[in-house]
Amino acid sequence: MSRISHAFQFCALSFYCFAFSLLAVVAVNGPATAQNAVSVVSDARVAGDLKRTRFILDMDGEVGYSLSFLSRPYRLVIDLPSVTFEFPRDFTPKGRGLVRSWRYGSISKGRSRVVLDLNSPVALDKTFLLPGVQDQPTRLVIDLTESSPDEFEASVGRAIAQTLPVGATASVPDEPKAEEPVRAADSNLPVIVIDPGHGGVDSGAVGSNGTLEKAIVLNFARFLKQKLDKLGYYQVHLTREDDKFISLGKRTKIARGKDADLFISIHADSITNGAETTRGASIYTLSEKASDRMAAALARRENYSDVIGGVDFSDEPEEVTDILVELTRRETKNFSIHFARLVVEELKSATTVIKNPLRSAGFQVLKSHDVPSVLIELGFLSNNLDEKMLGSDEWRERVSDAIVQATNSFFRARIAQQ
Known about the structure:
alpha/beta, Immunoglobulin-like, Aminopeptidase, 10 helices, globular, N-acetylmuramoyl_amidase_3, signal, MurNAc-LAA_cat, AMIN_dom
């Protein structure tokens, strides 16, 4: 018998031994089943680009997890307890941005793993678990940013994020903790003005169960302010801190009077047609031409607030047409759209959003020419599910966290200088 034949027989024998051992592992351990799995993973997705990429796992329960980097080739490993992967029938893992591709499965009894194959070196920006609320699943979120080979290699071989309680956030070590922020002088902190819509005689939308928009948005705005204040990175102000009417023009004047770097107006919408099926959050920027009929109708209703409050428009100043003001307005609009996009990406991981959640219309409250401004619709009080959700503490926690994350990304460069 020739050497080639011997070699062939040896390779064949080795292959069969490997196949038999693999079958034995599956027979002993098997895939995670409903009996031994701690959670069911029902969906996963990748979003972003080559500078920043987000990976999300949807599951029906809270799990501990750990992350670690491997090199040659570049990979991120997500270790989980035993979970069942029950993706839709036509589901295919797809990469995007910094993630070339990814795979998943059971690696031993009581352990599951997801491996992200990376296009280039990355750094872990943050990772957190969002608790399930209403019909929203628990979500494991991992944010990656571009990095250098040396920085990546420094992270290889050590756990960069270990088991965390739901709602906690892990980042690369050595960053200051939120509870013990490194504060800069107050004069150097970005100024944020949060505007709870309506108030006083103007109650805004009213839910089918009597929920008042003015109460929902004030409660949420207070909570969001507390979270931002706790970070120590910002000076945060509210346009109203109780149930009182403030004209739309005065709201923008408050923002400009505070030299605001960002203006966030908080609302909760209501519609008549399609109320049973239309639900979810959305975010608006200023545009004289509305992005769609719903946006145009919403702007008309919101701009009617001053009429409800009995405001006299006779003393309102005429529109300024100076070319420098117009250039500033264009730059402000670009900043507003940038922040709006960041919020949309965060909200997608935190709550239900409507189709095409980034919209625009001629909102009077967004017309400061030098303050980046957005209007966030938390949901639809005309929808029973949204109305119930808007009163949930868990939902409020998730959505406020999403807006905080977007705000931190928006001011990332200035925070780094503090």
